[in-house]
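Assemble and predict.
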Amino acid sequence: MTDGMLKTIVVLLGVLTTLGIYSVLYKENKIFRFFEHLYLGLAGGYAIAANWNDVLKTNWWEPMVNDGKWWLVLLLPAGSLFYFIYSKKNGWMARLIFGLFIGLAAGQQFQGCAGDYWPKIQTAATKTLWVDPAKINQEYPVAAYATVLNNWLFMAILTAVMVYFFFSFEQKSTGAINKVSKFGRYAMMIAFGAMFGNTIMARMALLIGRIYFLIHAPEAMSSSGP
Amino acid sequence: MGMIFVGLLIGIAILFVLTMVPNRLRKPLIVLVTFLSGCFYAVEFFYPTHAVVANKQDLIKKYGVPTQTAPDFAAEAQKAGKALDPEAVKKLQELSPEDAQLALKAALEVTTPEKPFGPDAAEKLVTQENFLTPKFKDVSDWALVLQAFAIGLGIYSLMSVHLRNIAMKRSGWGNSATLITAIFLMAFAHIGKEYSSKGGWLETLDNLLYNGLMKNLDATMFSIIAFYIVSAAYRAFRVRSVEATILLVAAALVMLGNVPIGQALTNWLPNGKTDVLGNLRLENIGQWILKKASNPATMAIDFGLAVGALATSLRLWLSLERGSYFEEEL
Amino acid sequence: MNILNNLDRRMLYLLLAIVIAIPLLAPAVTKPLPKPAITGFTQSYYDTIEKVAADPGAKNKIVIVSCNFAAGTLAENLSQCEATVRHLMMRKLKFAVFGFSDPQGRELGQQVVDKLAKEYDYQYGRDYVNWGYRPAGAAVALLKTAVNDLPGAMGKDIKGMAISQVACMQGIKGVNDVSLICEFAASATLPVWIQFYQRAGKSPIPTLYGPTSVMATEAVNYVESGQLQGMLIGLKGASEYELLLQKEGFASSASASLSLSHLLIVVLIVLGNIGMFVERKQRAAAEGGR
């Protein structure tokens, strides 16, 4: 098979699968179900292959067989512990390996929290809350005041949302806390709105990608090179 | 090969012994494994570190195994006819005698009349470690392999459901057969191409299966949500309360600020760096919402999550977590 | 108003497809639209790579191009990745493709490099390397090892060669030899870099982020706290970046479709709400009349 032919077939398969999946938009049908199963199967096979090619072959099989690190074979029974989850009698053994990874992840969490949140706490704690007359840009004095105003807003929202969370269990909250937490709830709505706005963009982008592919399929088939 | 076989037998024997562990000891054993594995990174993080020479194994390979005596920096430098900065030497003298010897050799090698050995260069030769840090590589190698073995868990579940469909000829069993065939075919092609010659038929098959089918199926499957979101936006996104209104207004402003057509709506406003009105352009409002209004809210949510994650981690590590999985009789 | 409320969903689907297809089929229609405004996130992303390229020390270091996405988010992540790799190639920076979230990442990253390699004369081994895929469950353990021993932790590349033997990896020992981290993600993989790698060396490694736009809102605080030096917000970020690089690609062509589809959604939300208000009014009137 020539490269050009292969490329044409690859693009044709792409068009076929794309239209096949989109057929569900009209109504539920057998073609969609077929492609759906095909997708799951291919993804599963790909994951197996990638784990063999990139991890098991290079980090386990080759060092064990070629470099004399025979003790690596012990990882096979250790890894097989995962599969005891399907055993009725010895299902508990799977918990040993799950426990091992739960423990590792829990131990990493201390550094994780410090690495992730310390710089954020520092940022929040060092916000400028007063206008420094020396730093006012004479050409655009509004900027200095706007920054300070934004910083006050930042602190207000940060506090309010935290109050909303930390007092969410409190039934007899005082009026002031209720008001603060209500403001926190509104602020969260702005955040969720922003998330929604960006989510729309993400979804549209993916669809544009597919429609672009369909429209440009004929040229993709005829173009040479990889 | 012989030793591998012996190793495998040992492993199987350990598994067999584990199957005989009495019920009352099972939970303590799991708790112990979880606790000890948690200790590894936790202790490594909190335990004080000390200075050691960086890339010690490479240096030993290069210069041989060092002796236990502390080197005389000044004398060695003089012997080699090279000058070392006293500040830099001070840094290297903090190392153990063994490490200091290796560092000195490395320092003398990199020093030239044009490139004198200063504190910056010394910094590169030194790293911070404690007694657990050198074990990282073993743990990471084992974790990688064990995680790769775990990939079969999902595949096993998928296969068992679909093999049952085929065996019992349930409706849609043909699709199940497609799924099973696809798993084997993709795995075969993708692994096989690694072992076959470049440009062989296995590479072609892999190309057809991945680039022709899987890549497009994956991309299309995810893109379909766009259609549903349009329908949902039209039918469900209603201004029914103050909260919903705030959410909708923020979403609309961010959306319009994100795209050129939204920007075109407020293009008539000035856009200079010192134009106050420029802040009212839709793209700037969108950015303001992201940076100044939504950012502190997400940060506060994050802080809440962090406290939760830390607490949960502690409970899991110390096996204090409650729930059906953790409290089940073993 | 009944028409609005009983509109067939398939009509909406068709409308969306048409709205997206028009600018792609006839780009002239949307010519009057302005070019996307460059946001601070994108500008600082661009500036960071320029800064790294201008640093003479970075010549002996490596950039990590972390491809943690699959074909599912191709339109967003691949565009970001392609523009970034192009920028790295323009500035002759050595880089390593890597992925630990989805195995497709390392293959898609390689496809991006293959597409551009000829144009910028990039050769495997000499100018870049592909470390391959590693399972997410062991990613933290791997990166913690890679702090002091990067080649040892990564082991072998996709061609089965020891990473310490690859030409562009010579002199790369650990975290202090990494000049930049570029993370393209479709799931929460950024924290692994931030928490365990970025600040593990003598000075923090500049980190750039290309998330799907779904995840961008939550990542803004990393930019504000200085943990991220720049971010491309989804496809829009990629289109701004292409504009800065003056190399327009898919993201730029998609910009008009993105515009129209967003407008459609806003219009539909407004119509939906008008429908609701009218219906409420009619109901109130009917109940009042009774």
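Chain C has eleven helices and six strands.
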